[in-house]
# Entry
Amino acid sequence: MDKPTNPVNWFEIAVVDLDRATQFYEGVFGIALTEEGMGPLQMAWFPMAEGAPGAAGSLVKGEGYVPSTTGTNIYFSVEGIEGVLERVSANGGRTLMPRTSIGEYGFIAHFADREGNRVGLHSMT
# Structure
């Protein structure tokens, strides 16, 4: 029998200005993204660890990649949603939905990044 896994293993966030988007996400999450070209695509990869839980992903600039607040939404796991939303604002983004309880599953919030994407946050506290 196969070992159960979460079905998502990669995500991409569409961007128009890769440098601006990289600075935004590095500032919000306090991490370093790694720029990587992949064929015609320009990408900035979020840190990842082989075999660790969660999905890896990147920012992507290329033909057919259009930022949106109405499509698929991804959630970043964080400690302290309010602090992250403060960094979102300080880095040029805006809160779309403040910290909201989802009962026993913790709390969520949504923000718009500087590219125009809706992104979610999830925390158990």
The beta strands are 10-14, 34-38, 41-45, 56-61, 75-77, 94-101, 107-112, 118-123. The mean pLDDT is 95. The first strand starts at residue 10 and ends at 14.
